[in-house]
Amino acid sequence: MLSVSNLSYSFINNLFNSVENNDLQNTNLQKKILVNAFFEPSTRTSLSFESAMYKMNGNVITFQQDYSSIKKGESFKDTIKTLATYGDILVIRHPDISKIKEAESYVNIPIINGGNGNGEHPTQALIDLYTIHKYLKEKKIHHPIVHLNNDYYQTTTKVSILFVGDIMNSRAIHSLFYLLIKYKYIHIHFLPFCDCDPPMDIISKMISYKFYNETMIFSKDNIDLSIYDVIYVTRLQKERTNKNNNPDIIVDKEFMKKVKQDAIIMHPLPRNEEIDPEIDDDPRCVYYKQMENGVKVRKALLSHFLSN
Ligand code: NCD
Questions:
Q1: How far is residue 54 from each of residues 51, 185, 242, 298, measured CA to CA in Å?
Q2: pLDDT in tens, 237-276
Q3: Per-chain mean pLDDT for the chain
Q4: What pLDDT, on the 0 to 100 scale, is given for residue 153?
Q5: Ligand 1 atom with least separation from CA of 166
């Protein structure tokens, strides 16, 4: 799982079905080993994979770059080949966008992309899509996003999604964007921080695909926040740019006054200044819920790759 581009509807539906139906209660990964290899900091991705594995009786080994033979000059290739020898599945996060593809060429076990530079973060996008699906279902907004069992709504109700923040560098946004455009009736708009416009591949996709002729990129002075069902916020990726300023858009009580009563505010976390903690108790904020869904969706993914 390196990117969301190759994921089929049936894969996504089956995955979400197994989360919904609690199918994983009897999954036993007793003899299986997950290797977590994070070459970049992580809290939720690494620990939720770990937690998911333990919940299914599986085992985890954690590669620690600073205490590894990389410090003795060992190559990336030899490191990855070694990790693949010791485990049944590999989760890799790397600041260099190309390393995940390179790693895939060295091993024969499943590899999950836990975030590659400013590229993609496919498992976060699945968690986010699942969270959006649950919310729309709870609000009884009949929607065409995902069909679970007999629960398939075919309507023309549009779901409007606004991405706010560092659109240029946020891999969580990139993957969610590529996942959402697989579905009909989704409206996507962007409200980027200053100098954080969507990357060219996303712009060309929108122009060539189905968002043609629509104004897609807004500024804080010309946006109507009241039309969105989902507002997805990310932090400024300071580690990927030379910017060290604070974001020019803050989601605070003032911002929330302009947002629909039944909308949701999402964030993959970690957050910095872009979401004021004063709004955490607003029922529209679902970022902690997203985090909770992380373990559930990752359990389903691990079970898919490791049960046989
Ligand atoms: C994101 C990431 O690492 O890409 N976090 C996550 O995995 N939940 C978001 C970020 O770092 O801004």
A1: 5, 38, 39, 12
A2: 999 987 778 899 999 999 999 999 999 999 999 999 999 9
A3: 91
A4: 40
A5: 12
Copy the structure tokens of residue 169. Answer: 């560098």
Whether 173 and 95 map to the same domain: the answer is no
Q: Write the CATH number for 16.
A: 3.40.50.1370
Residue 172 CA: which ligand 1 atom is closest? 4
Domain residues for the domain of 227 are: 122-290
268 CA to middle of ligand 1, Å?
A: 6
Cα–Cα separations (whole angstroms), residue 21 to 17, 24, 271, 299: 6, 8, 31, 13
- For residues 50 and 169, state if they share a domain: no
Q: Please give all residues whose beta carbon lies within 6 A of any atom in ligand 1, as ranges.
A: 44-45, 115, 121, 124, 171-172, 234-235, 268-270
Q: Are residues 260 and 129 in the same domain?
A: yes
Instruction: List the residue whose alpha carbon is closest to atom 7 of ligand 1.
Output: 45
Is this structure's pTM higher than 0.85? yes
56, 299 Cβ separation under 8 angstroms: yes
Cα of 303 to ligand 1 centre, how many Å? 23
Index of the ligand 1 atom closest to the CA of residue 294? 8
